[in-house]
Amino acid sequence: CDFGFQFMMLCRARVSVSSVVRSHSRPVLMGKSMRRVSTSASASSTDVADPLAAYHAHQKQAPRLPMAEEVRTLASLAKFTVLCTCDAATPSGDEEQEGGFWPAGSVTGVAFDDEGRAILALSSLSSHTRDLERDARCSLVVMAGGFAGVSDARASLPCKATKLEGDAAAAAREVYLKAHPDAFWVDFGDFSWFAAEVARPCRLVGGFGRAGSVSVSDYASASPDPVKPFAGPVCGHMNADHSEATAAIASELIDLSASSLTSARMDSLDRLGMDVSVVADVGGESVTLPVRVPWPRPAESRADLKTLIVEMTKSAAAATAAANQSTSKEDANTESE
Fold it and tell me: C-alpha distances in angstroms, 188 versus 113, 145, 216, 241, 268?
């Protein structure tokens, strides 16, 4: 694996989760709702409040992808989309007074070209194809890989779809088959090529507490994140073999202290940093704290990711060793007194 050799060289400097926790002394506020955790009845309000302020300040300043770049990244990695069209069925009764159609949703394969257009291979037998031939307006919903719930990123792209012919259709076919190499059915006689181009501001929900809109021009000028495609294998490797290193990095960065840190999982990453879920035992309850961990400098390749993670692991190991040495000296001085 790409990271195995480097981490094997770090085995002597590796830091266990328990040693990371022991190297700190201040309390921290943790939990899904970021509620206050009391460490003792005698703890002052300052003792409890300062770590919370530090955590929020750090997370507020931690760099994240611009929203336009995040939307383009979600789109570039999407293999399927929820395609929402204007139902072309003939309206009847009160429906005609409500605008002449009802929104209709379907799931279809998708690939995005370098311009950020959604390339669709649609059959004339499908109702959404007839919808688009009647009314080009549509909306595409793209979601983060492995989407499991409302904490995962998703974006809605309002588009206008155009049916492609000739060279444009051939170019679209090439884009689509690069993302879906086994989609032999796109050459069946009932399939046509469509390009859906963003026509109105996109809506992004990047997880809890991160939402906004992206203008048409910002979407068009943005580019997908260069290292996001490697997030799956890198995170999988780190979680399987080096979760203690992830915990050490997160602990050093935001001073997760005085709580029993039980695990850390790397959830995702991009060119500016990684998203980590830290699990801790607080007052007998296991709680999860999402942590944004910035890289020391932007990553532009998979090789950069390896270099940065190894570098940060060494730094965390050195910081913890220094803290443990300081604690040992203090204990020795106390005993001598």
Answer: 22, 29, 34, 46, 38
